[in-house]
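[step 3/7] fold_predict: job queued, chain A
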Amino acid sequence: MRYLLFFVFLGAALRSVSQVHPQMGARSNALGNSSLCLDDAWAVYNNPGAFALLQKTSLGLAAENRFLMKELSSQSLAFGFHTKKSGNFGFQFQQYGYNLYREMNGGVVYGMKLFDNFSAGVSVNYHGIFLAENYGSKNTVSAGLGLLYAVTRNLKIGMRVQNLSRTKLADFNDERLPTYFGLGFLYQISRKTSWSVEVEKDLIHPVTIKSGLEIQAHDILAVRIGANSYPFMTSFGFGLKLKKFNFDAAAQWHTTLGLSPSLGLHYSFD
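[step 4/7] structure written:
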């Protein structure tokens, strides 16, 4: 029983009240969790507005091991279907935890380019919490919104609201899923270097500032570094592009709790 409670409280603390995870994917992790302006397959979760710019039907798989503890590991899947005229359709799924405490998060997403420099997307998400030893489970749904605006060729602004619906999790103490507001900028410094900065806030915790630098060191190799202010973590990683496959690896470092490695694989269809 005490192990169950330990992991429940630890997981909730590290995820800033569980069930609405701000980002998904190893590329985002390497960039200090800054991803609101990235239009890869993981945008299906990270920002439905950026997902509207996905150019090819894509499938992504990722895994993360928080602080090298298997009980805090997560596995993710993202799929985006690209159409030329009707926008992009996608779905995502993530599970986190272990057999005594597990969270599941899935959703469907639609994103569309409304103007040459402006796109928007919406998501409907399922959330499930499962507890062992007859403690029961809880299932609910939430809604999200994302926008992306290209100010110039080199500057993009992304915005996202997670749990726009303020979904209630339990009647006791009016407990609700956390609602996140995010605003981010992506500046293309040069043809091979981009810099991202984001500000994120929920209704309870302090403002989080996230930033990352991505350098295309070679045609097939990208190098990434980043930082996150709350909780403070540094990060680094790399990406390899091999024809239709993109492989990403990242590690985040918390000064007290240690290392959190993650891996991702992304495939683009013709």
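[step 5/7] annotate
The chain has a mean pLDDT of 89.
The chain has four helices and 16 strands.
exit 0
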